[in-house]
Design a protein that fits this description.
CATH class: Alpha Beta
Strand content: 15-25%
Structural class: alpha/beta
Strand order of the largest sheet: 5-4-3-6-7-8-9
Helix content: 25-40%
Largest sheet: 7 strands, parallel
Length: 241
């Protein structure tokens, strides 16, 4: 598949990138950077948000609950019908703030579904296709919250720590530099997730989502023969994060 350069005479092969959680925040910024030159499929769990974001960026969109393996499998199979999946950015997460005893059981369950089952199923299916085609880059977005215990976020930190452990273990088993599994741990960002945390969890030092998105896109665009760093923090340089 070839897309013509807007200037007229140039052209380049169009690569396909899947952005999980691409309807807002960091995922939307990643999709925005990729969309002008590549085929982008944004994936979200709300059909109205997927439709609006896809229309805004001029890209493809799919509604999918990443905690449901059948939906994730079907989504990747459909995307791969149109060619290789060159990169996947997993930017979806559910914020959970509050003490363990203060959280409703259904909130805990949904956090585990989104933050644990979600990356497990997404990476399983992404890597299945990448191994079959012989190349591809996958980037999981973690959080600096996994580095140190912080009062009030036991479930959020535990579920994001699962993702970090999953990537570390699976990355060791990829067996090929042509299939790259990487993770990025941003500092706090002024996104919709951060807005939901409540005053007691708000931070005053932020990493802009656009800056983090540039790092993720850089990793997604690595060539099969390129070396890479499997674990990367994206932080403000003032020493507080």
């Amino acid at each position: 598949m070839i897309r013509a350069h807007p200037g007229g005479t140039h052209s380049w092969p169009v690569k396909t990138f899947v952005v999980i959680g691409g309807t807002s925040g960091l995922g939307l910024e990643v999709a925005r950077l990729l969309a002008p030159e590549h085929r982008v499929v944004i994936v979200g769990d709300r059909g109205d948000e997927v439709k609006d974001a896809a229309a805004d960026l001029g890209c493809d969109g799919m509604t999918c609950d990443v905690s449901r393996h059948d939906q994730v499998e079907r989504a990747f199979d459909e995307i791969a019908m149109h060619g290789a999946v060159h990169g996947v950015a997993h930017c979806a997460a559910m914020w959970v703030g509050g003490g363990l005893g203060d959280l409703a059981p259904e909130t805990i369950r949904r956090a585990v579904e989104v933050n644990v089952l979600g990356p497990t199923y997404v990476l399983r299916e992404a890597l299945r296709h990448m191994r079959a085609q012989g190349h591809g880059n996958a980037v999981y977005v973690g959080a600096v919250a996994v580095d140190a215990a912080r009062p009030g976020i036991p479930v959020y930190r535990a579920t994001k720590s699962y993702g970090k452990s999953l990537v570390e273990s699976v990355a060791q088993a990829t067996g090929s530099n042509r299939v790259k599994l990487m993770q990025v741990h941003p500092g706090p960002m002024p996104t919709r997730l951060q807005e939901r945390v409540g005053d007691s969890f708000l931070d005053t030092v932020y990493t802009p989502p656009a800056a983090v998105a540039r790092e993720i896109v850089r990793l997604l665009l690595l060539a099969p023969e390129d070396p890479y760093v499997s674990d990367l923090r994206v932080l403000q340089a003032d020493g507080r994060w």
